[in-house]
Amino acid sequence: MKCAFYLADGLTQVVLTPETKAETAILDTLHDGLREITVCKGQFAETRGGWLRDFGIERPHDNHSTMLVLRPAAPKPAEVTPAETSHGQ
């Protein structure tokens, strides 16, 4: 994944460009409307087993990672049409 930062005229833009099908699929989830996106700052480090994880430890001097967290969006209430509210009147 390529990441670029553009700063111009007071605008800051972060651009993520996928380089594989898997990265494309992940980025597509940002646009499908099924998830809520939260931007978090934290510590993200490699474990002894070679995995990456957020340790959730409050260490302000170590919080250099920025994470986009995708959670399932809350269900939207069903829309009621005017025909349904008129009750046959």
How do you describe this structure in short?
The protein has 89 residues and is mainly β. Helix content is 15%, strand content 40%. It has 2 domains: 1-33, no CATH class; 35-72, no CATH class.
Count of spatially separate domains: 2
Q: Main sheet?
A: 2 strands, antiparallel
Coarse structural class:
mainly beta
Shape descriptor: extended
Number of helices: 2
Ranges where pLDDT stays below 50 over 5 or more residues in a row are none
Provide the helix percentage. Answer: 10-25%
The portion of residues forming beta strands comes to 35-45%
- Largest beta sheet: what is the strand line-up? 1-2
Q: Supply Rg.
A: 20 Å
Number of E-state strands? 6
Determine the mean pLDDT. Answer: 80
Distance between the termini: 58 Å
Order of helices and strands: EEHEEEEH
Structure overview:
With 89 residues, the chain is mainly beta. The chain has two domains: 1-33, no CATH class; 35-72, no CATH class. The protein has two helices and six strands. A hairpin with a 2-residue loop joins β1 (2-8) and β2.
Question: In terms of topology, how is this protein built?
Answer:
Layout: E1 2-8, E2 11-17, H1 21-28, E3 35-42, E4 44-46, E5 52-54, E6 65-72, H2 82-86
Antiparallel strand pairs: 1-2, 3-6, 4-5
Keywords:
2 helices; two-stranded antiparallel sheet; mainly beta; 89 residues; two-stranded antiparallel ribbon
